[in-house]
Each structure stands twice: as C-alpha cells, then as structure tokens.
C-alpha cells in the first residue's frame, strides 16, 4: 500500500490515521482520544472507525456481560477476558496473552525496542501510550481533576487509579493467596513472589530483581552517586523515594497504620513486615536448612551463615560483616554516634533496637514469654538466650580451641583471650578492656557510682557480683 497517497483527517480532533496507529486506539468509547498524535492514514475506512470515538456509537455488544464497544476487534479482544483464553504465545519465554497487541508490546521487553520517540527531548519509549503521557509533561497539561481532593492528572486512567486511594477499592486478586490489590501492576509484582520470577538483571554483577525500580536503585550502588540530600542532617541518598522516607524520621510522620493494632509506621514496607507478626507469615525459606523467615533481608543474612560470606568491611579497622546493618552499627563504635534518644529520660543509644528495649524499662512491658517456665522478657534476644538454659544448647563455637558457648556475645568475648584484643577504652585513664561490661564496671571507680542496692540492709555496691557476694552474709 502506498503510504504517500491521500491522507484522511478527523473533523473533530484533526487526528490523522493509518492502520498501525488505529489498531492502538481501538478502545472502548468512554476513554479519551489522544488529540495530539497526528496519525496519517491512506484508508478512509480506518478513519471512519476512529470517528466512533467522537460519535460514541457502540454497535458491538458482548453477549456475556453486555459491555458495548465501538469496534468489532475490540469486542473480540474483550471476549478473551471472559473466557480467560490466551491464544497468543511469546516465542522467547512462552508467556501467553489474550490479544496480539499485548504480545507485541511484551516482545519489546526482550528486544528492548523503543520505536516511539519524543520530539522535544528525544526520549524513546516502547509503547505509544507512554509517549503520549510523557508529552504532557512538556505541555504541563493536566485536564483531569479528582472530585475529592482536586488533585490534577494528565491522563484519565491515572485519575481512575488515584480514585482508589479514596474508595479503598481493590479489584485485582491473586489466584494463589487471594491477596487483593488496588493496581494491576501491584498484582503482577506480587505474583512474582510465588513464581520467584526476576526478569530484571544487573549488567554489572548479574544480580536479578523482580521489580525494575529496584534494579535502577541497585545500579546506583555501583556508581555510588547520591544526588538526593536531606536538608536537616545532610545525609545523602541515591534515590528520591529513600530520601522521602528518611525525611519522615525528622518530621515523625507515620502515615501507614496497622488495621489490627493501629500501630503507625513511616514506611509502607515497614507496615507490611509488621503485619506478619499478626499473621505469623514467613514466606521466605532457606534452601539449605529450610528455616523460614518473615523478611527477605533476614533470609539473605541467614544464608551467609552457611556460606560464611562477609561482604561488608569497616573502613577504619577492616573488620568484616555479613550484613550492612551490622557494619553501620559497628561503625558507631568508632564515631561514638548515638542518634536514637529516649523521649522519657533522654538517654541516647547507638542502636534503634536498644532504644526499643530500653523504653520497655519505663513501661515495664515484657512481651516475650518462655514456653517452659513462663518467665517473661522485654527483649526477644534475652528470651532466646534464656531458653538455652533449658535446652543446654551451645551453638557458638570458638575456631581456635573449639569451646562452645550459648551466647554469641560470650563467644566474641572469649575470642579476645586468643587475640588479646581490647577494643574498649576508659575516657578518664585510658585503661583498655576486652569487654564492655568490664569497662562500665571500671568506670564506676572514677564516678563512685553504686547502682546495686541490698534489699535487706540497703547497702550499695558498684558491681552486681559484689552485691551477690554480700547477700550471702545475710543468708549465712
């Protein structure tokens, strides 16, 4: 067909048409026509078909749900949604689709083809629809407004999706676990947690991701570029989302609330993780020992106990760690930074978890209970440590002398007897100690502090061991 022959223009929107462009605008008549696309056509029938978008003529009706369409081919595509028929298959990954256009669109994820280019900034897109949306960012055109909050949008579909934030509508449901979602995109991402599909791969280290924005965020770990800076504390971030989430720490904003206990969180992923404490859901399983975890990061951290991998290194003392959080926590031993403060007594802590545990000393909250003796604890680590007194389990072993310990802290302290390491130093007399508890006990010789008191005679002691020894004088 000669594309240079007569062109036809729509009298209402001045849109030109050709067969490929019209195929992409064959949509239900209640949607908006893209007025600025300037498509050309050499066939008058295709232009007439496009004209239905303005006349709202919908002569084709679905006999199952009675939904009406302006074009017969749109009706045929719609039929597949009722029958769940997917006759079109991808030759590369064998994924199936209900219509041919979705197959073509999907195929570009393999070829990385982006045939649609912006005339202003030359940014390329794999879909024409995305190009139209992008063009409105240059024109700053936002012709669709929300009736509830008056927020404006450049596209009607974006407005429809936004409405669900007001109605809490979740029309998309997972076939596996029946979890519901407001957006189809969220459902597709969630579905990969069941299939373990990770279609996005890093070109540098070949690490795979289930979501594209996680890949983009990961790329910046190779470049170490952090263009977003916090105005309060000047901390830098590689992406805008992380900065926004961090900023809520300063504003104390917690917009995400748990439906069960009404606890509030500053980040949505923190709420999702918390919710599993109610459901006891542990969707992440170790391939080696089959231990289950509620957090993916906990699984990754656990897996390193099998591989003995420690990819994170301290710039000051070169000590290596299996987890980045452990490294950050350790680094504060060098900087003496204590960013977490108690609202009641204003005591500062270097670890957030230590602050949580400390706060329970004010509330006397002890949420963790021993199944054997019913003794209660304010911290889960204390419960686990206590439980080993019943099982006599000693899972931590010294690599040098093979002595076993029930607590990791005890192992670390013991290892220093081999290395003669004394990392804790007194600020007053510079005497060094291998154990922090020994430093604290020593420090009281300077301050003359005696925090331990006898219940019988009220005599005070600087050390708990001395108190216990003193007790025996009362019990003979």
UniProtKB/TrEMBL annotation:
Keywords: DNA-binding, Metal-binding, Nucleus, Repeat, Transcription, Transcription regulation, Zinc, Zinc-finger. It holds the Pfam family zf-C2H2. The lineage of its organism: Eukaryota, Metazoa, Ecdysozoa, Arthropoda, Chelicerata. PANTHER family: CHORION TRANSCRIPTION FACTOR CF2-RELATED, ZINC FINGER PROTEIN. One of its GO terms (molecular function) is DNA-binding transcription factor activity, RNA polymerase II-specific. GO terms for biological process: positive regulation of DNA-templated transcription. SMART domains: ZnF_C2H2 (SM00355). InterPro entries: Snail/Krueppel_Znf, Znf_C2H2_sf, Znf_C2H2_type. It is found in: Nucleus. The keyword DNA-binding applies. Belongs to the snail C2H2-type zinc-finger protein family. SUPFAM superfamilies: beta-beta-alpha zinc fingers (SSF57667). GO terms for cellular component: chromosome; nucleus. It comes from the Eukaryota. This is C2H2-type domain-containing protein. Residues 60-87, 88-115, 116-143, 144-171, 172-199, 200-227, 228-255, 256-283, 284-311, 312-339, 340-367, 368-395, 396-423, 424-451, 452-476 form the C2H2-type domain.
């Amino acid at each position: 067909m000669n594309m240079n022959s007569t062109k036809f223009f729509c009298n209402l929107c001045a849109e030109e048409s050709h067969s490929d462009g019209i195929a992409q605008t064959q949509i239900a008549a209640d949607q908006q026509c893209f007025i600025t696309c300037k498509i050309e056509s050499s066939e008058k029938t295709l232009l007439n078909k496009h004209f239905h978008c303005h006349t709202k003529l919908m002569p084709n009706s679905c006999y199952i749900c009675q939904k009406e369409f302006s074009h017969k081919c749109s009706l045929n595509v719609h039929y597949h949604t009722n029958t769940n028929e997917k006759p079109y298959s991808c030759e590369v990954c064998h994924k199936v689709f209900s219509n041919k256009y979705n197959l073509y669109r999907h195929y570009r994820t393999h070829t990385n083809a982006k045939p649609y280019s912006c005339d202003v900034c030359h940014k390329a897109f794999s879909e024409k629809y995305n190009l139209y949306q992008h063009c409105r960012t240059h024109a700053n055109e936002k012709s669709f407004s929300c009736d509830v909050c008056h927020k404006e949008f450049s596209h009607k579909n974006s407005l429809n999706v936004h409405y669900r934030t007001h109605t809490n509508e979740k029309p998309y449901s997972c076939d596996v676990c029946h979890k519901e979602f407001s957006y189809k995109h969220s459902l597709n991402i969630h579905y990969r947690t069941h299939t373990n599909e990770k279609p996005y791969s890093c070109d540098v280290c070949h690490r795979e991701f289930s979501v594209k924005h996680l890949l983009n965020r990961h790329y910046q770990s190779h470049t170490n570029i952090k263009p977003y800076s916090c105005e309060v504390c000047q901390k830098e971030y590689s992406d805008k989302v992380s900065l926004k989430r961090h900023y809520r720490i300063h504003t104390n904003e917690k917009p995400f609330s748990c439906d069960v206990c009404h606890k509030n969180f500053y980040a949505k992923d923190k709420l999702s993780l918390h919710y599993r404490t109610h459901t006891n859901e542990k969707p992440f399983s170790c391939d080696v020992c089959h231990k289950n975890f509620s957090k993916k990061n906990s699984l990754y951290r656990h897996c390193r106990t099998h591989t003995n991998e420690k990819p994170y290194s301290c710039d000051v003392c070169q000590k290596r760690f299996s987890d980045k959080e452990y490294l950050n926590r350790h680094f504060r031993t060098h900087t003496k930074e204590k960013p977490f403060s108690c609202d009641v007594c204003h005591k500062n802590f270097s670890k957030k978890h230590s602050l949580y545990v400390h706060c329970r000393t004010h509330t006397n909250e002890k949420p963790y209970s021993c199944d054997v003796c019913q003794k209660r604890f304010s911290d889960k680590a204390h419960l686990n440590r206590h439980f080993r007194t019943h099982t006599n389990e000693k899972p931590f072993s010294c690599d040098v002398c093979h002595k076993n310990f029930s607590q990791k802290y005890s192992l670390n302290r013991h290892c220093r007897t081999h290395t003669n390491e004394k990392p804790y130093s007194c600020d007053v007399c510079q005497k060094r100690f291998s154990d922090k508890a020994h430093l604290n006990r020593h420090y009281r010789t300077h301050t003359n502090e005696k925090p331990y008191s006898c219940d019988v005679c009220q005599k005070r002691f600087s050390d708990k061991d001395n108190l216990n020894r003193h007790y025996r004088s009362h019990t003979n």
